[in-house]
């Protein structure tokens, strides 16, 4: 699910309006239990092409940055989360308040979540939030700030890249291990970031070069400004 192939698979995402149209269709019902990614995949194999109203609970495999677009009447906020485990994952499309919750809680890879009042499209093995969807954080990832593709630190500056200023921004930051340079491809993800903000980056590439650590955060990485969070569960270096 990594790389360009995963990006291509996201091209079939539906909008909030399209999701509401799905809700107007004849939605099937499932037994009164909460389904995980494996259950949903099995349902897809048995009932291809059906639409169901479901609740889902599983671990977070991946969180993508929120996107914001201009709709007919207001800004539309959208995000993709992937739940399940390697080899058995399902996409979850979140809109509006449900999308914002991923950052305000905040959710990170390895957390276990439950969401009620979802729509499941078995044709695409994809879940969609509705206006009634309710998200609960069931179990925290005990190691939420460390890992080979995760950085947790503090922003020193945000500036255009001298190499490709139209395509990338450069964040200079630090953590307990010293200074880093972060090349960011998603301008929207860091639009409100400033000096002193705590930052968490997931699914990034980290390497050592000339005494510096370099981090590459492309559009498949998740960048979280901890200033927007309502919880202090993620600690950072002052």
Write up this protein.
Residues 1-14 have low confidence and may be disordered. The strands form 2 sheets. Strands 12-13-10-9-8-11-14 form a 7-stranded mixed sheet, with no helix packed on it. It has a 5-stranded mixed barrel with strand order 2-4-5-7-6. Helices cover 14% and strands 45% of the residues. With 238 residues, the chain is mostly beta strands. The two termini are 35 Å apart. The protein has helices spanning 3-9, 16-24, 37-46, 97-104, and strands spanning 28-29, 51-63, 67-70, 75-85, 88-95, 112-121, 126-139, 150-160, 169-175, 178-184, 198-202, 205-209, 212-217, 222-225.
Strand content: 35-45%
Number of separate strands: 14
- With strands numbered from the N-terminus, the spatial order across the biggest sheet is 12-13-10-9-8-11-14
- Overall pLDDT, averaged? 82
Quaternary structure of the protein: single chain
Number of helices: 4
Rg, please? 19 Å
How are helices and strands ordered from N to C? HHEHEEEEHEEEEEEEEE
Distance between the termini: 35 Å
What would you call the shape?
globular
Coarse structural class: mainly beta
Contiguous low-pLDDT stretches (5 residues minimum) are 1-14
The largest β sheet comes out as: 7 strands, mixed
User: Helicity level, as a percent range?
Assistant: 10-25%
